[in-house]
Amino acid sequence: MPLLRHADLQPYNTFGIAAKAEALARFATADELRGLLAAPELSAMQRLVLGGGSNILFTRDFDGLVLLNEVPGITVVREDEDHVEVRAGAGVVWHHLVMHCVAQGWGGLENLSLIPGKVGAAPMQNIGAYGVEIKDSFVSLEALRLADGEVVNFGLSECAFGYRESFFKREGRDRFIILSVNFRLTKRAHRIRTDYGNIADELARQYITQPTIKDVSDAVIAIRSSKLPDPAVLGNAGSFFKNPVVESTVAERIKVANPSAPVYSAGPGHSKLAAGWLIEQCGWKGKRLGHCGVHEKQALVLVNHGGATGAEIWDLSDQVLRSVRERFGVELEREVNVV
Predict the structure, then answer these.
(1) What are 46-58's pLDDT values in tens digits?
(2) How far apart are CA 157 and CA 140, in angstroms?
């Protein structure tokens, strides 16, 4: 793809927000990326790397270079009787990787089925769902260091994973571009996780008592499809807010006043609350403001009903944050990256 000037970014973000970039290019190898970074007419520009554009909100045009990460490939690095280590290019669609692994009988990623985006964003966000996070199967990743163009290897501890957090969202932000990610998956004696969310209920509905990794994947896909909108139909970026981790005394106060409130353990002295439940209790579920709104089936998801600007969605999120703060004394945090 040649360099595009004044490029339309609407096709490259799942919110479907109309915005422009000063320049846009794509890369599939480290050498192609180095070439773009070294180009005299581009080297002084601020940069933004996009994968699937599924976790970003454009509130303005981007006065710089947007780089589309399209590093391909799924390969086996090593394996034995019990485990396989798989390397995936950062440009691989995340769900395609999960489906490939499930089809091969490799366990560990099945609970993360149907999460939008590409592989490169997975460790940045430490994506997770239904009791599983990337860090549970993560081995290492390779990233290009912008300062000198060197490819650097990062192990588990160096990524400093947290709840929807990592080194690459904090200290490493705008310093590295992820090229590939390695995962260690099981070939047998899989750890089947059905204890979170509605997976067990969905399996029971299908009369499955001894689920395989494919059964779990199918259940997760069914659940997500039933309550999360397809970005191709209704613009969105998935969960807009993080589930807040609070002191256990705060969670207990909310639970006493609201016995149905979902509360999960988050380590000694802390609990995790369900942001979607908090938002729903404030009356936001299904509410529409102009061109945007809160999804009718999942209050964590803000949607573009067509023609919404990023500023409108930002303002809506601000109102949601304020109402949860006023009613419950809990501060929600946006999960989506904002430009």
Answers:
(1) 999 998 888 899 9
(2) 9
Residue of 26, 87, 164, 224 with catalytic role: 164
47 noted as active-site residue: no
Whether domain 4-69 has CATH 1.10.10.10? no
Q: What are the two backbone dihedrals, phi and then psi, of residue 187, each rounded to the nearest 5 degrees?
A: -100, -20
Comparing C-alpha atoms, which of 87, 132, 93 is closest to residue 111?
Answer: 132
Closest listed residue to residue 183, CA positions, set 322, 84, 304:
84
Q: What is the pTM of this model?
A: 0.83
* Residue extents of the structural domains in the chain: 4-69, 74-206+216-222, 235-338
Q: What is the largest CA-CA distance in the chain?
A: 62
Q: What is the pLDDT of residues 205-245, one digit of tens each?
A: 989 999 999 999 999 999 988 888 888 889 999 889 999 99
| Size (the chain), residues | 339
Selected catalytic residue, list 113, 137, 166, 239: 239
CB 32 within 8 A of CB 314: no
74-206+216-222 has CATH 3.30.420.310 classification: no
Residue 239 annotated in active site: yes
Beta bridge partners of 235: 304
Q: Classify strands 83-89 and 62-69 as parallel, antiparallel or unpaired.
A: unpaired
